[in-house]
Each structure stands twice: as structure tokens, then as C-alpha cells.
Design brief:
alpha/beta, five-stranded parallel sheet, four-stranded parallel sheet, globular, binds aspartic acid
């Protein structure tokens, strides 16, 4: 069932929007091949020997940065982590100057996270290497949606026809946007649930059903994805108080009882217990797949690195063929 990585034509991975169902399925198929390898004592391959991957993170990260680092190293590549707090960005260098400086060192791939929506795409137009969006503002976080899809597909055997609820701070969430694009593309049905203050203005154009009542929105769903209140992107007050927010939108066993009895509980992390999710639900080993999501994250990132690097075989860096996101 393994799909050949080189058959997937992607120069960069900037978002899920615009990817075909075939490309998404193929990326998930390649990811599947890495799950077993990651469970072995010896996890290393030499597929990316000689390749340089730079993680360029202008925002905090635990899971994404670590899993890209592990992914690159397990495939035998050289991985460098750049934290902007320790770089010349703190001395006033612009995003593009930093990118061009790194570009001059001939990396093969940049993984970039930035607080501004669109910043990663802009950067991808200026450098010669492949670029993966590790999260740009509230726009997209493509590898998160792929790892979520892989987790669901392995548990449910499919994505098509499933009813998925994405709950909480939809407005500021790149995870929500990437998941909405992916799930719609793959034939799942998406509900978004949250207070009206945390719904984006363009929500009606995203092909989802909108609920402001958690119990109604959760009724009969197969999958419950919880989101953190992303206070770092909030200017002003969006919820009356944390206890009030938890009362109406925090996932606890009572609200969860409206979902299907075997509904899976997901969260991209970092979790804020007692804010958007109750500990009892988060730690329910029968239904919570939050740690499985993290495991799938490494496999998905290995697949993305393999796919993008396979387009660059035998090409000196700096002479990559032209081509868009897909
Ligand atoms: N880790 C995810 C992201 O970077 C979700 C979050 O931060 O709440 O978007």
C-alpha cells in the first residue's frame, strides 16, 4: 500500500488548501510507512544523508519543532534549530534578511513558524530551498492537519463520512483552518463550536456547520477536536472569564455524553486543563488520542521531508525546478 514519495509532486508544503484528495491520501500513506520504524530500537535511516534542514521558529513550539528535528535526524539529515530569541532577529533583522542569510548557506529545506499569516509563503518565494509551513499566524498548520488525519484514519479506517466537531477558539486557530480544508477535501463533515466572539467572519464560506451550543454541536459526532484559547493572538477580551468559558465550552464528561459513545477526543496541544478541557476527559485512555497525535506527528513530518526532498534529488541547491505548492 506504500505510495512512492517521489510520485507526490510538491515543491513546498505551505498549506492544506488547494491540495487534492489524492495528494493528501498519498502523504498519509507515506507517513504510515514510518510508524513502525519509529517504534524500533534503531530508528535511523540514511535517506537524507547530506541534506541540511533548518528549523526557523519565530514563535514558541514544543511538539512541532521537536518532531521536525527528530524526523530529520531519523532520516539521516543534518538538522539545525534556530530560535529567534538567540538570533539576529532580536537585533532588528527582518524575516526576509534572515531567510536570505540562511539561503546563502545552501540549506535543502526550511521549516518556518511565524506569528504573521502569509509570512511563510512570502519567505518561500525568496529562497531556493523547499519550505514547510510550521504554522503561520492564524492561517495554516498543514502538518498538524495531516497528523490529525492520520490518527483518525488509523482509528476509524477512513475519513470520508465522519462527523468531526472542532471546538473553541476557531478565530485564532490555524489548526482549525487546516483541518477544515483537509476534512472537507476528504469528504468528512465538519462542525465548528464556540462562542460567537471566537468565530471568524468568513466562517460561512468555509463549508462547515456553526454551533454556539456545545451540547447541540457535539450531538452524534465521531470526533471531538478541542482547541486552546490562543491568548497570544487576542487583542482585547473575547470571553467573560475562564470559569464561565469552561462552563459553556470546556469539554467534560457531561458534554461529551452528547457525542457518539466511541467518539475520539483530540487536542493539538498545548492543553490548558480546566480551561478548554477537563483532566478526566483528556486522560481518558479509552477515548483520548492526544498522545497518539504526537506519535503520528513524527511519522507525518518524516513523510513530508521525504516527499519534498525526493523532488530535489541530483539537483544542486539553487537550481530547483519552478513550481507552486502542488
Ligand atoms: N500547537 C498548535 C499551533 O501551533 C495549537 C496551539 O498552539 O494552540 O497552532
Amino acid at each position: 500500500m506504500s505510495t512512492s514519495a517521489s510520485s507526490i509532486k510538491l515543491r513546498h508544503l505551505l498549506g492544506i488548501e488547494g491540495l487534492s484528495p489524492e495528494t493528501i491520501s498519498a502523504l498519509l500513506d507515506v507517513s504510515e510507512t514510518y510508524i513502525e520504524q519509529n517504534r524500533q530500537i534503531d530508528k535511523k535511516q540514511s535517506l537524507l544523508r547530506g541534506r541540511t534542514i533548518i528549523n526557523l521558529f519565530f514563535e514558541n513550539s514544543t511538539r512541532t519543532r521537536t518532531s521536525f528535528e527528530l524526523a530529520g535526524k531519523r532520516l539521516g539529515g543534518d538538522v539545525i534549530n534556530m530560535q529567534t530569541s538567540a538570533s539576529s532577529v532580536k537585533k532588528g533583522e527582518t524575516l526576509l534578511d534572515t531567510a536570505m542569510t540562511l539561503n546563502a548557506m545552501h540549506p535543502d529545506l526550511l521549516v518556518v513558524r511565524h506569528p504573521d499569516s502569509g509570512a511563510v509563503q512570502l519567505l518561500s518565494q525568496k529562497v531556493n530551498c523547499a519550505v514547510i509551513n510550521g504554522g503561520d499566524g492564524s492561517h495554516e498548520h498543514p502538518t498538524q492537519a495531516l497528523l490529525d488525519a492520520l490518527t483518525i484514519r488509523r482509528r476509524r479506517g477512513k475519513l470520508q463520512g465522519l462527523l468531526v466537531a472542532i471546538c473553541g477558539d476557531i478565530l485564532h486557530s490555524r489548526v482549525a483552518r487546516s483541518n477544515i480544508h483537509l476534512l472537507n477535501t476528504m469528504g468528512a463533515r465538519v462542525r465548528v463550536i464556540g462562542p460567537p466572539t471566537l468565530m471568524p467572519a468568513e466562517i460561512d464560506r468555509l463549508g462547515v456547520e456553526v454551533f454556539t451550543d456545545m451540547r447541540k454541536g457535539l450531538t452524534g459526532v465521531d470526533i471531538v477536536m478541542m482547541l486552546r484559547l490562543q491568548t497570544e493572538r487576542m487583542h482585547g477580551s473575547y470571553v467573560p472569564s475562564i470559569p464561565e468559558y469552561f462552563r459553556f465550552f470546556g469539554l467534560d464528561n457531561e458534554k461529551l455524553s452528547f457525542a457518539k459513545p466511541d467518539a475520539l477526543i483530540m487536542h493539538p496541544g498545548p492543553m490548558n486543563r480546566g480551561v478548554e478541557i477537563d483532566s478526566e476527559v483528556a486522560d481518558d485512555i479509552g477515548r483520548s488520542v492526544i498522545h497518539e497525535q504526537v506519535e503520528m506527528g513524527v511519522a507525518v513530518r518524516m513523510a513530508c521531508l521525504e516527499v519534498l526532498m525526493s523532488q530535489r534529488r541530483n539537483e544542486p541547491s539553487g537550481s530547483v525546478a519552478e513550481g507552486g505548492g502542488e
